Amino acid sequence: MAAIQGIWKQLLLVTVLLVAGCASVAQVDFDRLFGTSSPQKRLENAELNQNFITQAEFVQKEVEPVLNSRCVVCHACYDAPCQLKMTSSEGIERGASKEKVYQGSRLVAATPNRLFVDAFTTETWRQHGFYPVLNERNQTPEANTQASVLARMLTLKQMHPLPEDKILDKRFDFSLDRVQQCANLEEMDQYQQSQPYAGMPYGLPALNANEHQVLMHWLEQGAPLPFSPSLSPEFTTEITQWETFLNGDSLKSQLSARYIYEHLFAFHLYFESLTEPSAQPLFFELVRSSTPPGQALDIIASRRPFDDPKVQRVYYRFRPYRATIVDKTHIPYTLNASLLNNWQQWFIDADYQVTALPSYAPSVAANPFEAFIQLPAGARYRFMLTRAQDTIMGFIKGPVCRGQVALNVINDRFWVYFVTPDYIDGADVIAFQQSQLENLRMPAEEESSAMAVTWVKYAAKQGRYLRARNQFLNNKLKNGQHLTIDSIWDGDGNNDNASLTVLRHFDNATVVKGLVGETPKTAWIIDYALLERIHYLLVAGFDVYGNYGHQLLTRLYMDFLRMEGESNFLTLLPQEERRKQLSDWYQGSGTQLSAFITGDINTFNQPTGVLYYSDDLKGELYQKLRGKVAKVQPHKYELENNQLQANSKALLQALSRIKGTQATLLPELTMIMVEPENAGKAEVFSLVRNSAHRNISSLFNEANNREPAKDDVTLVYGLLGSYPEAFWLVKEQDLAKVVATVEQMQTEKDYEALLDFVGIRRTNPQFWAFSDKLNQVFFDSHPITSGWLDYNRLENR
Fold first, then answer.
1. Residue 170: DSSP 8-state
2. 395-426 burial string, b = 16+ CB within 10 Å, else e?
3. What does the record give under GO molecular function (predicted)?
4. What is the model's pLDDT at position 797?
5. Distance of CA 692 to the CA centre of its chain
């Protein structure tokens, strides 16, 4: 009772300030009231606090669930508003910043501000321009709420909940590039007067009374942030085994470990033997340290994983991942005995010699074909191919959380196949790759403040590489046939990474195993050289803090890589059909790109190695490829997996066939929960809109390249994607009406009426209850791969 009275006392004080500010903003002298500001040591002091165990239990059981479900869903990754990352104690204590990470117009690279990498103390973060959201003055209950930006934001929301409107007005700006209102403590009075409806959670229902009281009581007590517990002996044993492998003294071991690290640095590693099937694992990061195993970590904070570490010897170490798992950055990677045996076989036991370690000079380190020239190419390819979904997921969930500039280079849905690793094991293939080191250079060697005009240089290199590759394949392969169905990887009969589906949602994307949805417009076939370049362009070599030139150069070069993957697919078709498909894929493309596509680089003169028996050549090819990977085809997302009635399953199939205007009216990603008539567990589905384009070769003209009449949807069972834009809650008995409504939509008003019927808008009083249930279904069904969804893309329609 005393705690609750204290909270209301603080609310009253805030009210007084707000009332006083109606005529003119009160200028509060916080130094006089609560003492001067000085960074606290909440994490360090927790160990010394006699009440630590009680506090830790309160934070774990009461506070963290509210922070995760109400705060983390908007405040995570680089795109967290005001860089306030609430996924960890360290992120909350670091606070917020007025600087933007996503600023595509900057001419010079920004200084990186990566949590757990670029600074480790609150004092250092203050020097980097971050301001506190917790009280850093006298630690009294009054000061801890009145001098806390977080407490003031929460209180502001309680005093000014959302207007009682289903669609919020212009006082609310949900655009990704909106002007950020990053008010520090001294600016809070002005902020509260000018932005009364901008309390937290922004543009969403307020916390209920209990949730608010929990957070305010936590803040009143000084926002204790318990330190991470020690690892159990079982984990220490596992880490020792893997660190021993990764830190061998031989040149072969050091080179192999460097390669492995540069491909896994963005992943969340977990030990299969120590993971319960129904529980979320303890995840780790692979980091570079200047200290060997057995000593405290000394993180090497470089922009990129291949930058010069500036130490005599690099050690590859495991660090517990201390943040809340969010889906948009989560790439779980299993560590088990089978994988370690593969690494031993591919990299250590293989018959090859390493005579010297490669330089860290950008011209070498940014080119994996040169840096790792002494590692067997087959080993490198098998390393990436065995976990192909993770490899591709790296450029979707890796160093960037928002990337329309990078992602408008791919179609909204396409299938991916891979060339069998046996294809590159020959000595002549290895010799050819070594002859192309100069042409395989990539923009990452320009570092983070690049000039976009260097695109011309890399375009020329790519052209020379493809011409040389075509000539090599013409000479090497029987009858000049570059690829056949036999050249496609079948997953070795047991690996379900053999085929992937990539779905783009404007400025974010998803990659899943298997061939999801109807046959797409385009497909890629990826070989080793292409897969490696994708990784070093978009994951290892991409700097989210880079300048405009770096980001533009990355996007333009990805055009080449996409076309290379598409061309590999087209070579399986007869010559005339290749040109027909290419013409359809690149309608109205610029003259420069058209010349690149249709000139001597893509002559398409080689015969196909595939026999055809129908007039639908591309459809027949898709069927042949489907047969090639059929044995390892996963069925996770198939609609038939749901437990609804047969008629409901038929209605869902009808919904999956929506095209044209009806599809265009839908958001990029809708998550649907269907409550069954028989009172069984709710079933969840994801409805993805696939936006059609005449071509995707234009960086700045995407809207003019759209073909809305050809838009369609992909409906899958389960949750797919990290950024939902709309939520539907449907009773099974209403499913027929819902599908009929969607089929008849013609205008925005029609879509609005649909949401009136089944939508859980951001203004819905039941929003948080729905959110909790949806996330819980995700966690329960996929405890290893799930993470908190992100609500920064929720629509206001």
1. T
2. bbbbbbbbbbbbbbbbbbbbbbbbbbbebbee
3. isomerase activity
4. 95
5. 23
Residues in the chain: 797
336, 342 contact by CB (below 8 A): no
Of the candidates 737, 734, 685, 741, which has an alpha carbon nearest to the alpha carbon of residue 714? 685
Quickly tell me which residue has 């409906």 as its tokens. 715
Q: Show the domains of the chain with their CATH numbers.
A: 2-220 (no CATH), 399-519+538-633 (no CATH), 639-781 (3.30.1050)
**Residue 769 confidence (pLDDT) above 60:** yes
Sheet of strand 413-418: strand arrangement: 509-513, 500-504, 413-418, 522-526
Q: What is the pTM of this model?
A: 0.93
Alpha-helix runs per DSSP H in 265-387 = 337-343, 362-365, 368-371, 377-386
Q: What is the pLDDT of residues 137-180, one digit of tens each?
A: 999 999 999 999 999 999 999 999 999 999 999 999 998 878 88
Between helices 388-397 and 528-538, what is the axis angle to 10°?
30
Beta strand 669-675 pairing with 683-690: antiparallel
Specify the pairing of strand 522-526 against strand 509-513: unpaired
pLDDT tens for residues 122-133? 999 999 999 999
Pull the structure tokens for residue 522: 């385009």
CA-based angle 210:211:214, to the nearest 5?
Answer: 85
Residue 436, Cβ neighbours under 10 Å: how many? 18
Residue 592 has a pLDDT of: 61
> CA-CA distance, 582 to 169, in Å (whole number)?
45
Do residues 315 and 292 touch, judged by C-beta distance below 8 A? yes
Which one, of 410, 467, 426, 747, lies nearest residue 596 by Cα? 467
